[in-house]
Amino acid sequence: QVQLVESGGGLVQAGGSLRLSCLASGRTFSSYAMGWFRQVPEKEREFVAGISTHGSSTYYVNSVKGRFTISRDNAKNTVYLQMNSLKPEDTAVYYCAAGTAYYYPGGYDYWGQGTQVTVSS
Length: 121
Known about the structure:
The protein is mainly β.
């Protein structure tokens, strides 16, 4: 089992940048695929990005390609989401998740508590 704690959310103007971090507990972090999801009220949670266990493969939803970058540091038990050129439609609660298949949204089993990202126009 793994516990996840996100940080780095906040308020930013459109066109700005934020970097989200997710610190995982436990000694098996490198055995998990990691992902970022986001959710706005009254909408389903959206799979944003995923990364394989050692970072060699990544997945992005089309709406963030070229703007967001997912990365991980297994020595620090941390996964990151660098978000550039932010848009108001990126406003959401962002969740970190751990699972078995980096590209498959249904393959994530463990979740953080979420961090709010608000992009003002």
